[in-house]
Amino acid sequence: MKHPVVQQAVQLGVKGRLVLPAGVRRVLRLREGDRLLLRLWDDGVIELVKAEEVVLGSKGLLQRLYPALKEKALAQELIQERRREARQE
Question: What is the pTM of this model?
Fold first, then answer.
């Protein structure tokens, strides 16, 4: 069973703006300008997720489904490393 890390009442402001409490921002390491994904579930639950977490989760899923993608990513990383070394010489 999931348990909340932070639970705090918030109030909508002008034009529906919502300020995330400092404790939530601190736990999630959110900074001004960070992108969030808002999901509204059919049971009325609203979920905010850091966009980078969605991207990382998707990348991991794709790599599990298509192992060749991981090999390509490693190859790209090696090529970039070699190019950096060549520029430094």
Answer: 0.51
